[in-house]
Amino acid sequence: MSLISHSTASSSSSSSSRNHKICLVSEFQRGCFDYTYEVFVIDLGSCSGGRQRRRGPRKFRNPLLQIPNYFPMSMGFFAFESSIYFLGGISAFEAEVFLPRDVFVCDTSSSGSTIKKVSGMNRGKCYPVIIGPVDGKFYVISKCLVYRDFEKFDPKLGSWDLLCQPPVTYRPFPDEVNEYCISAYALSNDRKILMSTPSGFFSYDIDMDNWYFNPEASIPFGPCYMRIEIPSECAVSMSGDRFLGFIKEKEEDEEDCHVVLGTYRYNSNEHTWDDFQHIYAWPMKYETSVYPMSMSMSWGDGLFCVIVSEYDLDSNTHCVSIRVFGGGPNFKCLHSRQYKEEYKMKRCVKNISAAFPW
Hints:
Blueprint: E1 20-31, E2 34-45, E3 65-67, E4 76-80, E5 83-87, E6 91-93, E7 96-98, E8 103-107, E9 115-118, E10 128-134, E11 137-142, E12 151-154, E13 159-162, E14 184-187, E15 192-197, E16 200-205, E17 210-214, E18 234-237, E19 242-249, E20 258-267, E21 272-283, E22 287-294, H1 296-299, E23 303-312, E24 317-326, E25 333-342, E26 349-357
Parallel strand pairs: 14-18
Antiparallel strand pairs: 1-2, 1-26, 2-3, 4-5, 5-8, 6-7, 8-9, 10-11, 11-12, 12-13, 14-15, 15-16, 16-17, 18-19, 19-20, 20-21, 22-23, 23-24, 24-25
């Protein structure tokens, strides 16, 4: 997930009388640069906490949008009003790898949902991290900070502006595992974008357009182990000084590890995290991606939705679990559902690559 909300929801209607929806982007890889995407809209209902009718796992059907394989791999996605944007990623032509600056949009309110190219970025983004909206604007940067390509997008104007770049030395096409690759990030209530890397903690002040770096600090959420991959690596800011996200529950037996949803308290003066509160746990499978998101950014009713995407080697099954929780202190689960699909991972790789409120 990214720290993204769909920005057209009305806050005037009551929480119990409207349906909540999310977008899931399914990425399907058949070869090195053979990627296709499908965008699904999931209607979660009112999420009022009433009794749910029991039913088995579902299957993803009728995608809102299908993106063919000539688009870049590992693109970033976000929604604004009725449009879905996708950008960045990696392309290859005649054995040469490059980072396209193209930005595409699909206006879902128009018939046919045609994909159009809009104003491009100033610099291409490798595994783009997208944060927003903040005052109707989105902040985009490559997952590896050494590309120094941080910029801001205004979807109403269709404009891209380069910002103050992180205090690191530029290096084109760095190694995949790099000391300046983002392992976790968050948007704080005091309008700062927080990023954690193996080399330390970075903080960007949106209002001042400057960076702070602390080599001794970090964010406790995100991947620090091999068997769980968290593409979104985000923590969600809650009311006060607490953040919600995922960690790995360490067990003596590696086969019994769990992916744990919980909250930490953040001290912005000391850049420290403490008082972890456990909410829910999932057994960790071979491939695990997680996406926490705040529904309150768009709906204003204090709900948090989490998506756990896993691949089970024993059954050759891709499983996607969706749960909606009411905001603390007890974080009651108000809605849950599961999707399953069988396929052989030796032939292809399928996973959820992005998720955001709709």
